Amino acid sequence: MATTATERLREPVFAFDYVSDPAIAADVHAAYWDLKQNAPPVFWTPAHGGHWVVTSADAAIDVLRHPDRFSSKFLSIPPNPHQPRMIPESLDPPEHRPYRQLLRPFFESKAIEPLEPRIRDWAERLIDEVAAKGSCEFVDALGSRFPVSVFMELFGFPLDQFDTFRAIVVEYFSTAISDELRMALSMQILGTLSQLIEARRAEPKDDLVSTLIQTDFEGRKLAQDELISIGFLMFLAGLDTVVNALTFGMRHLAQDDALRTRMIEDPAAIPAIIDELMRRYTFVSTPRYIVQDTEIAGVKVYAGDSVLVPLHMVGWDEKLTECPAEVRLDRPTCRHAGFGSGIHTCLGIHLARLEMTIFYETWARKIGHFQTADDQTLRFRGGSVQALEALELEWETA
Known about the structure:
By secondary structure, this protein is α+β, with helices and mostly antiparallel strands. The protein has a single domain, classed as CATH 1.10.630.10. The protein starts with 21 loop residues before the first helix and ends with a strand. The model has no long low-confidence stretch (mean pLDDT 93).
C-alpha cells in the first residue's frame, strides 16, 4: 500500500539548488564535487518544490536502470505536465523500445562514418577562420558553430538560420528565464520543425528528416506529431551537448600542459583523452519521476516525487575510478556516464565522439599549444544541462 502524505518523512535534508546555487555559477564542477564530498548519498532538498538528489554511483545507476520505478515522463524538476514530448527520451518501456530501435540505425558507427569528410571540412574551415588571429572566444567562434553546423546539415535544418537556432537553444537552457518564456521558445522550436517537415514532404532531400518521413514504423509512416517530437529532442540535444563537451574539454587542455602535448604529439590518444575529459567534466543532471514508493540506497522515497541524478557521480566514484579528481590516461578502463546510462544512453554517442575526435585532431595540427586568457571571468550555467558560457583562448601565431 502506498504511504499516505502525512506519513511521508523525507530525510536526510540537504540544501542544494541545481539551477541557481551560487557555487554552480562560480564553477559548476567544483560545486558538484563539493556536493559529492559533503552531501549524503541520497538526500531531499527543498529547492524547486522539493526533490531528491543522489550523489553516489550506486544510487545513480540504480535510478537510471530501473525505469519501472523511475520514469522519464517528466524531464524537468518540478515536473511540467505541459512540456513537449521528446521521443524517445521521455518514454518508458515498453513504448520506448520501438522508437529507439527505429532511430538507432541512423546513429550507429557504420551510419556515421560517411559523415567524416564533411565533419573534417567544417573543422578545417572554422579553425582556419580564427588561426591567424591568435585568440578567440571559443564558444561563439568554434564550440557552437562546429557541432551545430554538422548537426543542422545532418538533420536537414537550413544553415542560413544557424544564428537564430543557436540563440533559441542558448535561451531555452538559460536558468534565468521564466517557465512561460521557455514554453514560448518550445512553441517556436515546434513551429520551426513543423515547417521543415512540411517542406521535406513536398521536396525530399538527402537528410535525416526526409528519411524519417519515408521510413516504415510498425507497418505505417510516422505521424506528424511523432516526427515533431523526435525533431524536438534532436534539436535540443544536437545543438547544445557537444558544444558543452568541447568547451569544458578545451578549458582543461588549456591548463594541462602534459595532456595538451600528448594530444598534439600523439593523435591516436585523442579518443582516450575525450573519454577521460567526459568522465571528469560530465555536465548533465538527469531528472526522473518516481512512480511507486521505493528505496534508493536504503532511503525511502515516494511516488509523485522527483529525483535528480547528476551523471557526474558515476565517473567520480572512487570504487570505479582511482583518484577520480585527476585527469589521466593510464586507467585500465574509463568508466563514466557522460553519455548517459541504461536505456536512455545517448543515441548520438558515435557522432559526438567522431566530431570531438576530428575537432581535437584538427586543432592540434593547426593551432598546437594554447592557453586561457588571463583577464576573463568564467560564467557557468546550472540546470539539467550545465555549460560554460564563454571561454577566451590565446595561442601564438606564425
